[in-house]
Amino acid sequence: MVTLIIGGSGSGKSAYAEEYICKKAGKNSKYYIATMKATDKESKDRIEKHRNMRKDKCFITIERPVNIGGLAREDLADSSYALLECMSNLVANEMFLDSEPKPAATVVEQIVKDIKALASKLDSLVIVSNNIFEDGIEYDHYSMEYIRALGLINQKLSDMAEEVIEVVVGLPVKIK
């Protein structure tokens, strides 16, 4: 089962997603797949904040900034659950991995394929993603490619998901 939890920056989506998967998993194994790379003080602080949020929740943390599909080939516990935090970091990491950014279509195809492979190994996969499409500002070419890729991935994940929940000011709103 795939669940997509989406929301704007600071909406409370991460805290909600952790609470959601902890209830769903019960005593089963649960993984926290962390996609953020620590590149500056702000990202290091954010990673530390998330580690503190989950420190007493018995997650098995897997740091995986790229190649989520590789996890499908690894030994994950039977009856396991995973929280993928977060799609916006994964898309940026995959798109800008090399000196020349990958096209949105390539990134979308690879990530969706990887998510399907990972989801097939788990009892439940909860994916956190960002809603970054509402400011109406036109950005440079590469930023627009990134926004297009994340938007298409969010659409494909919502099609794939049994449940889609948007977190708005800390409140979950069930979309699907």
Named CATH topology: Rossmann fold
What is the molecular shape?
Answer: globular
Q: What is the rounded Rg?
A: 15 Å
What's the number of structural domains? Answer: 1
Number of strands: 7
What brief labels describe this structure?
176 residues; alpha/beta; Rossmann fold; 7-stranded mixed β-sheet; 42% helix; 21% strand
Describe this structure in words.
With 176 residues, the chain is α/β, with parallel strands linked by helices. It has a single domain (2-174), classed as P-loop containing nucleotide triphosphate hydrolases (Rossmann fold, 3-Layer(aba) Sandwich). Helix content is 42%, strand content 21%. The protein contains five helices and seven strands; from the N terminus they run βαβαββααβαββ. The radius of gyration is 15 Å and the shape is globular.
Question: In terms of topology, how is this protein built?
Answer:
Elements: E1 2-7, H1 13-25, E2 30-34, H2 41-54, E3 60-63, E4 81-85, H3 87-95, H4 104-121, E5 124-130, H5 141-160, E6 163-168, E7 171-174
Parallel strand pairs: 1-5, 1-6, 2-3, 2-4, 4-5
Antiparallel strand pairs: 6-7
State the gist of this model.
With 176 residues, the protein is an alpha/beta fold.
